[in-house]
Every structure is written in structure tokens, then in C-alpha cells.
Write a sequence for this structure.
């Protein structure tokens, strides 16, 4: 999976075979076999950048140095301020482990995200406040009856809905 040329597509990085990269990333692959025959895995991670680290080419380094496929799902990054980045990472299990160690060495905290936000339908008043902040469109209002719908498969676990919900119907497992 050596990448010769990196380009940004839909917030992710690929080598010109973006359709294949996106298909693999969005297929929900948790484990498998890479083209080299080694164990492949997929994780979703929340990276927290300290002030000053935002200018470093961290995502580029993960692709070039560790042969990882990256799909940026959500980013809140500003120069000279702390930043957050949620990404899918796909690659050989050992390369992912080395990439995570690299993040620690660079002073970037990471958290492996599992699952999705939790929706308490009984508490929900279907106001739609969460839909306005949901970057993945996992939360939507039905156009016929204005009821809230939640597609857990689309959830990035960015936690924005938990802050937007006025009645506390959205929560996260972490």
C-alpha cells in the first residue's frame, strides 16, 4: 500500500485510487488481509492536538511513514489553539500500532472510538437541535412527521449532539 502521490478527497487522503480507498473505508471493514498478506484492521480515533502541534503534518506522516489509509471524518482545528480530529485509520495492524506510538511521541493524545452516540428516544422531544450540528447526517428529521431518525452506522461519535440537545437525550459511551 505504498502511496506515491497523496491527494485529499472527501476529507480523506488517497493515492489516486480513491474509489477503492473509500469503498474499503466505508464498507465497515474492521479486520481483514492486506495486499501483502498481513493482518489489516480499521479503527476510528479522536486525536487531540495541543496548541502548537496543529501546524505539524501529522496526517501526511501517518500516510507516508506508516502506510496508513486515512479518512478525516470531522475536524476542529485552528492555528495556535488545541484541535480535535476524528478519523478512520485503515492499515496493517502493526503499522497502526506504530502510527499511534508516533502520535504519542508528537504529543498528540488519541482515543479509540467504538460504537456511536446513544439516543434516549423516550426523553427526546424531536426538536431537531442535534441535526443542525451533526456533521455526518446520522441525525435527521423525517420530512413527513418531523420525528427524529438516528442512523448509528453514520455516527462519527464527535459528541456535538450531546452538547446541542436541550433535554439530554443524546449521550456517548465514552
Amino acid at each position: 500500500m505504498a502511496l506515491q502521490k497523496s491527494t485529499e478527497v472527501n476529507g480523506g487522503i488517497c493515492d489516486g485510487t480513491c474509489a477503492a480507498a473509500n469503498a474499503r473505508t466505508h464498507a465497515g471493514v474492521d479486520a481483514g488481509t492486506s495486499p501483502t498478506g498481513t493482518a489489516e484492521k480499521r479503527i476510528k480515533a479522536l486525536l487531540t492536538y495541543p496548541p502548537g502541534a496543529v501546524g505539524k503534518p501529522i496526517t501526511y506522516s501517518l500516510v507516508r511513514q506508516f502506510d496508513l489509509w486515512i479518512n478525516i471524518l470531522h475536524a476542529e482545528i485552528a492555528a495556535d489553539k488545541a484541535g480535535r480530529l476524528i478519523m478512520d485509520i485503515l492499515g496493517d495492524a502493526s503499522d497502526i500500532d506504530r502510527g499511534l506510538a508516533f502520535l504519542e511521541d508528537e504529543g498528540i493524545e488519541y482515543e479509540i472510538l467504538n460504537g456511536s452516540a446513544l439516543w434516549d428516544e423516550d426523553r427526546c422531544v424531536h426538536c431537531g437541535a442535534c441535526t443542525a450540528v451533526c456533521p455526518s447526517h446520522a441525525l435527521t428529521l423525517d420530512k413527513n412527521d418531523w420525528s427524529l431518525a438516528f442512523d448509528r452506522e453514520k455516527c462519527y461519535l464527535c459528541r456535538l449532539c450531546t452538547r446541542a440537545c436541550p433535554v439530554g437525550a443524546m449521550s456517548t459511551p465514552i
Notes: The chain has five helices and eleven strands. The chain has a mean pLDDT of 80. The two ends are 32 Å apart (CA to CA).
